[in-house]
Amino acid sequence: MSKQFAVIGNPIEHSRSPELHHAFAEKTGIDLHYSKRLAPLDGFEASVNDFFTQNGVGMNVTVPFKEQAFALCGQLTERAKIAKAVNTLWMENGVLHGDNTDGQGLVDAIKALDWNIKNSQILIIGAGGATRGVIYPLVKAGARKIVIANRTLARAEQLIADLKDAVPEAELSAIGLDALNGQFDIVINATSASLSGDTLTLPENLNFNYAYEMAYGKPSSFLDQAKARGVPTSEGFGMLVGQAIEAFAIWNGVRPNLKDFL
Ligand code: ATR
């Protein structure tokens, strides 16, 4: 029987993880089946237990269960501990293991675009879970200075207070979205504005060389403004592929090449 994998979330119908993992499997010659599992909002733990009891090998976790998955694990990677969220689960010696591959997925997507991260100054807009998950991998990839801009300044300040000890080699700072200005190498939109159809207005005196939108498949006022300035841009499909490759490599011990799937 082929190795069983799944992505669990609510809703789950939109997930592209099965098609990605089946494409990786085909490329690497691994026999697996990857399905979607809709868990009731109050039934995440039962659904995970059910999957692993039935010899499931690995599970990806998506909205709204990443924090619950974090709480459920007996063993966590360093980056999952820092993210306080888990998107990749597997069982080892009867212990549920958790990792968070989202941040490395973003780093790998940016590298595949040939945008330089080493010694860079990065602006991240937004201070929610998406931002929390990417700071440590960006710093490990060489980002030297990261500014977090958020509509609610206090939330950005809190995030920095939480994370600064984990990344002592980088300079982290917070700014209110209304006070935003300056010069950056890369600006990353980690807000949920595009997902909810909201407009995000970038100030005139904000300058940047590259723009990355974490969302994908949605109109993005952020990307529209970056394109109007003639700046190279990307939406978040590469990050999705990157996090999936990272999970695939953990589970199967083989790493597909990101550029083959963009
Ligand atoms: P996620 O886990 O995806 O990061 P989240 O924790 O709900 O989601 O965080 C959403 C982020 O998008 C927050 O930084 C939020 O700003 P606030 O902290 O001020 O709420 C930001 N956000 C959402 N809609 C926005 C908008 N229209 N303009 C600016 N920021 C927005």
UniProtKB/TrEMBL annotation:
<dbReference type="GO" id="GO:0009423">
    <property type="term" value="P:chorismate biosynthetic process"/>
</dbReference>
<feature type="domain" description="Quinate/shikimate 5-dehydrogenase/glutamyl-tRNA reductase">
    <location>
        <begin position="114"/>
        <end position="194"/>
    </location>
</feature>
<dbReference type="InterPro" id="IPR041121">
    <property type="entry name" value="SDH_C"/>
</dbReference>
<feature type="coiled-coil region">
    <location>
        <begin position="146"/>
        <end position="173"/>
    </location>
</feature>
<feature type="binding site">
    <location>
        <position position="62"/>
    </location>
    <ligand>
        <name>shikimate</name>
    </ligand>
</feature>
<dbReference type="InterPro" id="IPR011342">
    <property type="entry name" value="Shikimate_DH"/>
</dbReference>
<feature type="binding site">
    <location>
        <position position="236"/>
    </location>
    <ligand>
        <name>NADP(+)</name>
    </ligand>
</feature>
<dbReference type="GO" id="GO:0009073">
    <property type="term" value="P:aromatic amino acid family biosynthetic process"/>
</dbReference>
<comment type="pathway">
    <text>Metabolic intermediate biosynthesis; chorismate biosynthesis; chorismate from D-erythrose 4-phosphate and phosphoenolpyruvate: step 4/7.</text>
</comment>
<keyword id="KW-0521">NADP</keyword>
<feature type="binding site">
    <location>
        <position position="78"/>
    </location>
    <ligand>
        <name>NADP(+)</name>
    </ligand>
</feature>
<feature type="binding site">
    <location>
        <position position="87"/>
    </location>
    <ligand>
        <name>shikimate</name>
    </ligand>
</feature>
<feature type="binding site">
    <location>
        <begin position="15"/>
        <end position="17"/>
    </location>
    <ligand>
        <name>shikimate</name>
    </ligand>
</feature>
<dbReference type="Pfam" id="PF08501">
    <property type="entry name" value="Shikimate_dh_N"/>
</dbReference>
<dbReference type="Pfam" id="PF01488">
    <property type="entry name" value="Shikimate_DH"/>
</dbReference>
<feature type="binding site">
    <location>
        <position position="212"/>
    </location>
    <ligand>
        <name>shikimate</name>
    </ligand>
</feature>
<feature type="domain" description="SDH C-terminal">
    <location>
        <begin position="236"/>
        <end position="259"/>
    </location>
</feature>
<dbReference type="GO" id="GO:0005829">
    <property type="term" value="C:cytosol"/>
</dbReference>
<dbReference type="InterPro" id="IPR013708">
    <property type="entry name" value="Shikimate_DH-bd_N"/>
</dbReference>
<comment type="similarity">
    <text>Belongs to the shikimate dehydrogenase family.</text>
</comment>
<keyword id="KW-0028">Amino-acid biosynthesis</keyword>
<feature type="binding site">
    <location>
        <begin position="126"/>
        <end position="130"/>
    </location>
    <ligand>
        <name>NADP(+)</name>
    </ligand>
</feature>
<protein>
    <recommendedName>
        <fullName>Shikimate dehydrogenase (NADP(+))</fullName>
        <ecNumber>1.1.1.25</ecNumber>
    </recommendedName>
</protein>
<comment type="subunit">
    <text>Homodimer.</text>
</comment>
<keyword id="KW-0057">Aromatic amino acid biosynthesis</keyword>
<dbReference type="GO" id="GO:0004764">
    <property type="term" value="F:shikimate 3-dehydrogenase (NADP+) activity"/>
</dbReference>
<feature type="binding site">
    <location>
        <begin position="150"/>
        <end position="155"/>
    </location>
    <ligand>
        <name>NADP(+)</name>
    </ligand>
</feature>
<dbReference type="InterPro" id="IPR036291">
    <property type="entry name" value="NAD(P)-bd_dom_sf"/>
</dbReference>
<keyword id="KW-0560">Oxidoreductase</keyword>
<dbReference type="InterPro" id="IPR006151">
    <property type="entry name" value="Shikm_DH/Glu-tRNA_Rdtase"/>
</dbReference>
<feature type="binding site">
    <location>
        <position position="102"/>
    </location>
    <ligand>
        <name>shikimate</name>
    </ligand>
</feature>
<dbReference type="InterPro" id="IPR046346">
    <property type="entry name" value="Aminoacid_DH-like_N_sf"/>
</dbReference>
<dbReference type="Pfam" id="PF18317">
    <property type="entry name" value="SDH_C"/>
</dbReference>
<comment type="function">
    <text>Involved in the biosynthesis of the chorismate, which leads to the biosynthesis of aromatic amino acids. Catalyzes the reversible NADPH linked reduction of 3-dehydroshikimate (DHSA) to yield shikimate (SA).</text>
</comment>
<feature type="active site" description="Proton acceptor">
    <location>
        <position position="66"/>
    </location>
</feature>
<dbReference type="InterPro" id="IPR022893">
    <property type="entry name" value="Shikimate_DH_fam"/>
</dbReference>
<dbReference type="GO" id="GO:0050661">
    <property type="term" value="F:NADP binding"/>
</dbReference>
<feature type="domain" description="Shikimate dehydrogenase substrate binding N-terminal">
    <location>
        <begin position="7"/>
        <end position="89"/>
    </location>
</feature>
<keyword id="KW-0175">Coiled coil</keyword>
<dbReference type="GO" id="GO:0019632">
    <property type="term" value="P:shikimate metabolic process"/>
</dbReference>
<dbReference type="GO" id="GO:0008652">
    <property type="term" value="P:amino acid biosynthetic process"/>
</dbReference>
<feature type="binding site">
    <location>
        <position position="243"/>
    </location>
    <ligand>
        <name>shikimate</name>
    </ligand>
</feature>
